[in-house]
């Protein structure tokens, strides 16, 4: 179980985004974070994956805090892949660093439609959608228990987006992966979500405000 317990968070000098937010995600669940623009969905995604430390509260996986070192059981894929890669590192090296076996890496490349000719390129030599596939492969190679997907397919055309999610959902099912995702596409969200959590509800302090 991935748990955010009684989270309070605000950026320095700004009002709190959440005062007392709690969320529990089971393996296999796919939870959509819903809220208006600027309400703090991306920030919460970062907190869940350990990139931001809350002012109060904690993030736990099966009752234990996220590890400070080594592979994190919660992996985040964001909406700007170019900001999460080393611009001087070739894609084959980036994937190798993710720590998958040769067979597993090949399987993930096949799953995500990563072409061999992309491997010898640098990030700036790939489109946003191509680069995003590498970021998803890197996240899955870390064998996460939970994947946080923050508008990961916004930059893709409708057909590529549908293919990517089909692959990701098959993988999630096979691994019993829990997911928390943000998407501004109602059609995509309706297809993916097993539950919707409305973040705006929490701004009044209601724990785990749930609809659907
Ligand atoms: N690093 C930062 N420092 C200060 N304020 C920030 C920072 N990142 C985000 N914010 C502010 O925090 C609030 C929440 O931002 P966040 O990106 O989490 O919202 P969001 O719900 O994901 O928005 P959107 O749907 O537009 O992507 C916004 O008002 C934003 O301007």
TrEMBL record:
One of its GO terms (molecular function) is ATP binding. Gene3D superfamilies: P-loop containing nucleotide triphosphate hydrolases (3.40.50.300). Signal peptide: none annotated. Residues 2-212 form the ABC transporter domain. One of its GO terms (cellular component) is plasma membrane. Keywords: ATP-binding, Nucleotide-binding. SMART domains: AAA. PROSITE patterns: ABC_TRANSPORTER_1, ABC_TRANSPORTER_2. PANTHER family: ABC TRANSPORTER RELATED (PTHR24220:SF685), IMPORT ATP-BINDING PROTEIN (PTHR24220). This is ATP-binding cassette domain-containing protein. It comes from Adlercreutzia mucosicola.
